[in-house]
User: What shape does this take?
Amino acid sequence: MKSTLIAPVSLALAALAPAQRSASPRSNILELAHGTVLVSVTSSYGGSWTAANLADGSTGTGWSSAQGAAFPHTVVFELPQPYAVASIAVDNSGDQEGSYPGISSRRVTVYGSTTSAAAGFTQLTAFEARRGGRMEVTLGAPMTARWLKFVVSSNWGNAEYTEVMELEAYGQPVAPQPRADVTVPEAALRGLTALRDSGYQAAVAIWTSSWQDPTKRHQAALQLSSDFARVTIQTGETRVRGYEIVRVADQDSRSKRIYALLAYEHFPIYLMLQTTSAGARWDISEIDLNPDITLVFPRDLLEGTPLAAREGQLPDVALRGFEALRGGHEEVAVGIWTATWPSTIPKERVNDFRARFAQLPQTFGQFKSYEVVGVFEVTAHLRRIYARLDYAQGPVYLMLAAYRSGAQWEILRMEYGRDAKELFPPALLIAGESSAPVLSAMAERAYNAAMKAELRNLVTAEYAFWADSLKYTAKVGPGGLAYSLTEGNQLLSLQLTSDGWTAKVGNVHTQTVCTIYVGSTPSPPATREGEPICQ
Assistant: This one.
């Protein structure tokens, strides 16, 4: 016997592989394929006329304002790093000027900022765009900017719509490209950041923008947008609250798989991005999006990492359910564990599941006790709790999947049955009746995983400091890195090198030390830049 209930939303997209893009002697730094992020747009017609088309490298697709939307129309982009911008272009070629006379954009003002997407803007240029054609203007002198804002204040006379097919900017980076995490391709990081900060349309544009075939690009973008739209309906949220990169798996020297958790308020969505190397650039070639973790993550990733303590690592919602069981109240326990399940699960299914669990004493006799056999961390947002419930006529095995997007844990999934092999990971089954020896032996893995996570967080903090100061730092705290470690972990060293930095992290419960480096100076045992190693 095995009973399971999980909130079902079935989504998946296997995208077609992008064609290779040939190198160009002059590159449009606004193109999303180069890492630029669409931050905001004040008006958009939608459908196939979204603002992401303004930076997709093609005049075959474009942007249109919403019908009757008042001027000005503003769109803001974030470049992957500061650039000395030398020229700006607006291309109205291929717009619907023939069918909608006067629809081409006309008066365009461009601003740049090194502060943020909302402040510190200085005017770079203002000009009149060409009706149905392309206009490029060269600045009097290159001006440094990380964010570019385009403001369209008029068109050529159409009273209903305004269109632009492509925006362009040309210039040179003002410093070497910072390396936030060399193990994660930039296209994947940029898309995830855009998903969190700007919404799924910006992420979809980034992940599909490198594809040369416009038909395939458009088809894949529509499918993925449709999948995210269904997620919006299920979650009631238009923007993901955060994301967590769970694993980057090297398939071979030219292929990586990135597994990530997208955090919504009440349940997560799981994402896999297949990336392939195109010279120095990595392109997204396949995307899988699904609320069922078993359909996206590999089996070994599902098992997670055992936490050193057991009851001390229990989310409060799980503990309250176990206390109800201790008092002989199965109906209260299952009520606690299913209280936050989403309305997408039919009410009759939830009630049936609750009724069957409440009847366990009628089937297996009086409840005697419970033992939490293991608590495994799949991601920082997701834990699996394994327990044995002892009844008069034998044990019932239980798995609870706990999820949190903020401070509070909720039970996302619940399974129970008489056969431990159907529910427990192999590591727990090895222990037989007593799980303590296995968890003790595996505690070292948990400490190592925690220390590696601290080092990856340090990479992120150093990248943020570099983005603001164009240098790295060995200082933590005010005037330095916004960085702290979890209880038990210790930053043993952080040293600058000629072109980067090295760091070591330890833990009070183990003699193992984990190291990482960015730049060209290895920090043994770490021998690959950006990859934490423990010894």
